[in-house]
Amino acid sequence: MFLVRLVYTSKLSDAFSSDDITDILASARKHNSRNHVTGLLCFSSNYFLQCIEGSRSAINRTYHRILNDPRHEDIVMLDYKEINRREFSHWHMGYVPYTALTRDVNMLFSGSPEFNPYEMSGESAHQLMLALKDTVDMV
Ligand code: FAD
To answer: Could you tell me the pTM of the whole model?
Structure first.
């Protein structure tokens, strides 16, 4: 069972309320721990950006569940790749708070200082998350 990495972005839906982030992280960590899935979730007032890594079958199942979640919408896969090793192996779902998504970081990886993953390439989105590893908050 080889490893894959999937990166997607989405928009918060009307069904989302700010308290939901705690539930989403708890549910993600419960499932991901069982399925040996690791990754990172960035969350702003408008967008989610998430990377999940694990076996191809586990990532497929996880992504299907995520796609059906009414708390977000307009889900776009930015990157899907076979990988040799994990990059977020410490976290069943590491959380990057909005405060870490500074103008300087956004300028490094996108064309404007605002955080908008829909305007980023898959590779830039992946590189942004790698650069934010040190800011991961376990909530
Ligand atoms: P339940 O928790 O019982 O939920 C059943 C259904 O209700 C699901 O369709 C769920 O999407 C929906 N639901 C649950 N709570 C609410 C709510 N408060 N309001 C509206 N609908 C609700 N899951 C993972 O396993 N791994 C991840 O990495 C992961 N990342 C996520 C990232 C984001 C941005 C979001 C929005 C969700 C993520 N999830 C993740 C959660 C995933 O979408 C499912 O909710 C969860 O995996 C399903 O858990 P469950 O089968 O126990 O169903």
So the answer is: 0.93
